[in-house]
Automatic annotation (TrEMBL):
A GO molecular-function annotation: oxidoreductase activity
Biological source species: Funneliformis geosporum
Keyword NADP in annotation: yes
Family named by the database record: Belongs to the short-chain dehydrogenases/reductases (SDR) family.
Protein name per its UniProtKB record: 9431_t:CDS:1
Keywords: NADP, Oxidoreductase
CDD domains linked: retinol-DH_like_SDR_c_like
PROSITE patterns assigned: ADH_SHORT
SUPFAM superfamilies xrefs: NAD(P)-binding Rossmann-fold domains (SSF51735)
Length: 244
């Protein structure tokens, strides 16, 4: 719907040649992440698709190779539900002794039924923010050594509905917020992290941005549908009629 109201200012054709650049896209096996990974590959980047499902991740790798003709596309196991595995994933990448020019923290969940990560953190806050925080900070020395480089954190206009901000003392209280409010709070945290990291890296040629993708038909609707059922399903089906 947003694209119908606003003139497009940037398309994939505007992406410059990325020969020699290395990128990681979390959640790159499907939806927005898949398109990002595909288009970076189309521009000759060496792309790692970081996701927890090995079968789907490797399937996306092969599909992108076939679509773009770029064979420098790889699967990187990343399970944001476990901080141990998050750190292991980052260290597995670092062990390859490659530079890292682009990190796109795209993976996420939305309005899921209540659950905790393996580390006992409310799942939306743990996956959308804490996991990506650890992944980014573990990779940061490599990103700083690969300048000019860029970090893009997937945000959401939903952060505007987190009226009380991030209430850290209530994150793990099941009845403190609705499923959607928990999602909004996780996006506030990600935006605050973006702003803080951007200030910390000012003048170092590491550019940190947060992006709101607009309304796009992706698998993230699984969370709201699981939580709210039929109403959410109908709402997403209607909204998807107006998405790109």
């Amino acid at each position: 719907m947003y694209s119908m109201l606003c003139k497009k200012r940037f398309t994939t054709e505007n992406i410059p040649d990325l020969t020699g650049k290395v990128a990681i896209v979390t959640g790159g096996n499907t939806g927005i992440g898949y398109i990002i990974a595909r288009e970076l590959s189309r521009k000759n980047a060496h792309v790692f698709i970081a996701t927890r499902n090995k079968e789907r991740g490797e399937g996306a790798v092969e599909k992108i190779k076939n679509e773009t003709g770029n064979n420098q596309v790889e699967f990187l196991h990343l399970d944001l539900i476990s901080l141990k595995l998050v750190k292991q994933s980052a260290e597995n990448f670092l062990s390859k002794n490659l530079p890292l020019h682009i990190l796109i923290n795209n993976a996420g969940v939305m309005a899921t039924p209540w659950s905790l990560t393996e580390d006992g953190i409310q799942d939306q806050f743990g996956v959308n923010y804490v996991g990506h925080f650890l992944f980014t900070m573990t990779l940061l020395p490599k990103i700083e050594a690969s300048t000019p480089s860029r970090i893009v954190n997937m945000g959401s206009e939903a952060h505007r509905y987190a009226y009380t901000g991030v209430e850290f003392d209530k994150i793990n209280q099941e009845d403190a917020q609705s499923a959607f409010q928990r999602y909004c709070a996780s996006k506030v945290a990600m935006i605050l992290f973006t702003e803080s990291l951007s200030k910390r890296l000012e003048g170092k040629e590491v550019y940190v941005n947060s992006a709101h993708p607009g309304f796009v038909a992706t698998e993230i609707s699984r969370g709201p549908i699981s939580t709210y059922g039929f109403i959410a399903d109908i709402s997403f089906r209607f909204a998807n009629m107006f998405s790109d």
